Structure formats: C-alpha cells, structure tokens
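Hi R.,

Here's the chain you asked about this morning:
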Amino acid sequence: MELAPSVTSLSMLTCTVPAFPDSHRAPIRVAGWDHIPAGAMRDAAAWLAANGYVLIQADQAPGPGTAGQLAARLGLGPAFTPPQYRSGPHVDGQGVTRITADTATTAHPAFGHSTGQELHSDGTLQRIGEIKTTMMLCSRPAASGGTSRLFNAAGTFAALLGQDPAAAAALTAPEVLVRTSNLPGSKGQSVTGPAFAIADGRVISRYSVTSTDAYDPRAVTDPAALDRALTFLQDAVGPGSGFYTEITLTAGQVLLLANDVISHGRTPYHDDPAAPRLLYRALFTTRCMVSEQAA
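And the predicted structure, written out as tokens:
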C-alpha cells in the first residue's frame, strides 16, 4: 500500500465516499445466519463500498460464531486480533471481541463500561489503513441508549481539501496523530502517524478524538492550519451534517463499517440488569470480496 506523504491537490483523489444518504437504507435481510444468500452479500458489499456502512438483519440474534459465517460469505477471511488484545479475556480464539458492561466477563476499559465512546478508528496501535473492515453484531441491545455514531471522516477530509488545502495537508503529516493504548499489558504504548493519507488513489483515515488520542502541533509546519483542520472536522459532526449519522442497533442486526473511511463512537447506555447489552466485534484487514458466481 503506497501512502502519499502529503496531500495538496484534489486531482490525487480517484475514490472518495460521498456524504451519507438522507435516510438509512432498510437493512439487508437474511433468513438466518446459517443461510446467507450470496445475492444478499453482494448487495451488502456494494452498499458498504458506496456508503461506508451497511446493516444486515436476521430474525435470530447473532453469536460469536456468526462473525466467521458472515466473513466467509463476504470474502473477508479470518478476523484480525491486534497484538495488545491477544491475551485479553474479552477476545475468543477466533478474534471475536465480546462487548458488554457485565464486568465479570470483560475487563476492557471501554468495552466493559456503559459510558459513551468518542469517535475513533479501530486499531489504536495499527498503521493507518491496516484494519479495513469492522463488524459489529448485536445479540442484545441496551434497555436505552448505546446508539452508534458514524462519521464519514474521509469524505469530510475531501471537503476540507477542496476548501483549505493547507489545513488538509496538516492532517497528513507523518507524526501528527498520537494514539495511545489504555489496555493492561500495553498501557501507555503509543504510535504516531498521519490522520489521513492517500493510498492506492483513495482517501484513508484513522481520525480519532478519544481521551487517548492527541494531535501534535510540533509535527506540522503550520500549527494554525492544523487548528483549522481539527475545527472543520469537529464542526462536521452532529445532526444536520451530511457526514454524520446515528444508528441504534437492535437484536439480530450486524453493522459493517469501512474502518479506514468511517470513524465511529457510541452514546452512553443503560442496561436491564437481567439482560445487559451484548455485542460482538470482529476486525478484518481486508475488504469484502464477494464472487459474482458464488452460490
């Protein structure tokens, strides 16, 4: 994957996810996770490529094994487990993460709590563009809240590039974004890299604004341009923006995200103690590859 060290011209872009549609497309329905038609998966892959996210729904709640079933039908291959997760109790042997506030079974500082999550790209310590697809599977929603927040970071960056190229270029500085792990075993470990880059003719993103992410003005030649860039992106987040949307997952729904395009977060939620919110997550270093001839 070739990365451009800086971005100064719209002519460099050949593929950018556009603004989100005005309303969500109805989820792509499948009869069950044991019967996933190839046509439905081709539709899902096409919608994901065009819009950066897609919903798939069945009448049965997904389990941890559902991630592998869907991945096989979508041509995603095996799930990727970041190194700092590999010894964690919240990740199974197939790379599927259990996300619940039931702290007896998970100890992740974000997954094990019902507080909100700020916008981020998955793969804190991975290089930009490495994790291409995130799969979120809702087995049991919260009693209230827990809405997924989706931000078309790559599309917003392209809009910024058209208005203020110097500001956009600041976000491509090789060490402008510092991301730090807060997981036991890797706590305090940081990596630096660009927030946006051009790879293979398309914008890719790792835009993240959590408490463990920081933008270093010392990494750019024009700190004022960096300030303008960050303000532009912050202003594009929220209702009324064509680059921001929200989805509250219900039982039986799967959300696929282009992780190198869309940043995501979560609103706080409240659980029914007898039936706490339960999601599963899987990460992939590939994009959907569904054969036209697949049965």
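Helices lie at 38-51, 64-74, 153-163, 165-170, 223-235.

Let me know if you need anything else.
M.
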